[in-house]
Every structure is written in structure tokens, then in C-alpha cells.
Amino acid sequence: MNTCTKVFLRKKAISGGRISLYLDFYPAIRNPHTNRMSRRETLGIYIYASPKNERERQFNASMEEKAEAIRCRRFEQLLNEKFDFLDKEKQRMDFLAYFKTKCREKYQKWDCVYRHFDIYCKGKCRFCDLTVDFCKGFRTYLLSAKRQRNNGKGRNIAHNSAAGYWSTFRALLKMAYQEKYLRENVNDFLEKIEWKEVKKEFLTLAEVKKLVETPCKHPVLKQATLFSCMTGLRISDILQLSWEHIQLGQDGGYMIRICTEKTEEEANLPISDETLALCGERSEGLIFKGLKKHMVNHPLKQWLKSAGITRRVTFHSMRHSFATLLAANGVDILTISKMLTHRSVKNTQIYAKVVDERKREAANVISLK
User: Fold this and answer.
1) Whether the model pTM is above 0.90
2) Sign of the alpha-carbon dihedral angle for 46, 50, 53, 57
3) What is the C-alpha separation between 309 and 298, in angstroms, rounded?
């Protein structure tokens, strides 16, 4: 039988006449957050190196007692994991607090999912509450939930938004299982919400050129919108795009080297000189200084309307425009997929269908009747 990891309480002298208390694991354990093997865990507990009076001696004794309690708890957790016992302490931990921590590491959609789950569980959820039926209930909630705008009094969230939120929540459950907060992988018993194919709104090349000619109340919004049309970047990536991301490639042309917020994967995207010119003169920091998330709502609609574009077009439609224009000009789907940083080419095939529809329209233009 394998030897269980031992846990020792250690002391280390630090500056300011203090001693830091920490835990020493032997053999090393894997940190569930970094996935790296580690021997130490800093407790953030400090005591006086040379207590001068009874008050300081009592303080030291109290802190060492608390540190010893943590050492015992860590040993119990390791013992439970080693011999596959259910760690009841973990099961009683706050799942919402865990969820919030993960949101800080992820992108904006995770915050939306968190807010909806907070409403669903009425602000209270422990890991032991995450039964299959409870999670299925959240799936049902998402399919009829209201948007969080206007205090939840507006329309229901779109079906595909619900599918995306549910996929994110299931990814969180998988993380919790891998980090041993959950005894079983609840995902094995949960069905996904199927995506519905929807019409992707996009601009024609003539409409994009019309935007170039139309003044905008917010010049930085115009720059960013046209930049998205030329690169396919999402608003989340454009907001954090800085000059250090624009680099000279080995072929002598410029490229964007960025870790996209949604996929969390590094992408190298070549850009044309015309696209680079939309960034303005090279400087330091953010490229689109002054660009705010709220600008892609009402200010964008006003600008589009002044350009004669009255149908429902969003900032994300610029990404669709980029892909559709590439497909219409004969660029292969695999290349478009890589330019859009799609994980699967299946997500890109919709743009080929759009072009095929346009071909059918073109074929019906000529009639001898």
C-alpha cells in the first residue's frame, strides 16, 4: 500500500522580526489550481520572532494553534483522497464562491452564467447540492430565463445563448470534478442544449465602403468597427488589443499575435497594410484608446442608420462580414477557420452556405421569360 503524504508545520524567519508559518508536504502533492507538484503551502500566518510581552506570547500561541488546525485538516483531506473517502468538508464548501473565482480567470460570458445561476439557486449553493436533478433544473431555467438587462423584465435569452451558457456551466462542473470537489462527474448524466442554425447578419462590401464614407460621432468606434471587418476580431479582443500585439512577421508583413479571450488560444493573424493604417500611429498601450463596450450598442446603431443600414446589425456582425467576404472571394474554408480562430471547421461552414445562397440568387437573375 502506498504511503500517504505527510504534512508538517514549518517556520521561516522573515523581515520585520516575524516568522512565517507554512505547510510542508512529503512527498509533494499536485496543486489543483496550477496542476503542478508542490511541497509548500503558504498559510499567510505570521508570529513574533521574539515576543516581548505576554500579549505577544498569547498571540503566537493562538496563531500556532490555528496553523496546527489547518495542518490537521490538510492531512485529513489528503487521507480522504488517497483512500477514496468522501471529503465531507469539501462537499459543504460554497460552490458559488468557487464559481466566482473561476469567473475572474475567464471571459465575460462566465459572469453572465454566474448571474443566472445565482438567481436559480437563490444565492446559496454548496458542492453537495450539485445533484443531477438540481443541474437539470438549471438547464430548464436557462431555456426560459429572462435577459439580465432591464432587471430581467425584457425578452427571454436567445436559444443559442442558453446553449452557450449551459455549455459553460458544464465546463465548470468538469473543472470541479477534476479538482476533486465533486465525487462523480455530473456531466455524464446531463444532455447538452442543441444549437439552432440562425441567419448570420453581415454587411456587403458596398455597405462596408459606405461606412468608410460616413462620419461617426465616435471616431474610435469607426476605427474599431472597420478593423473588425478587416480582421474578424471580436469586441472582447479589440478592447484589449495593444501595440505589443502587432508584430512584424517572418514574411516581412505585419501580424496580430494575440491570445483570444474566448478560446484562450494564441493566434497569429496576418493583416494588410490597409488594416494596419486603421490603428493610427504606433505608440504604447492600447490601440483603440477611448473605446468603450457601451459604444457597440446605441452609438453603433446611430452610425449604421446614418449610413443607410437599417436592418439589425451588431458589432459581432462585422466578424460575420469578414468571413463572408473572404468566402465570396474564393478563400478556402480551412483558411477562414484559422483566421477566425475557430476550434473546429464545422463552425466556419455556415459562411460557405451563405455564399452558395448568393450564387443561387445570381443564377436566377438572368431570365429569358
Assistant:
1) no
2) positive
3) 14
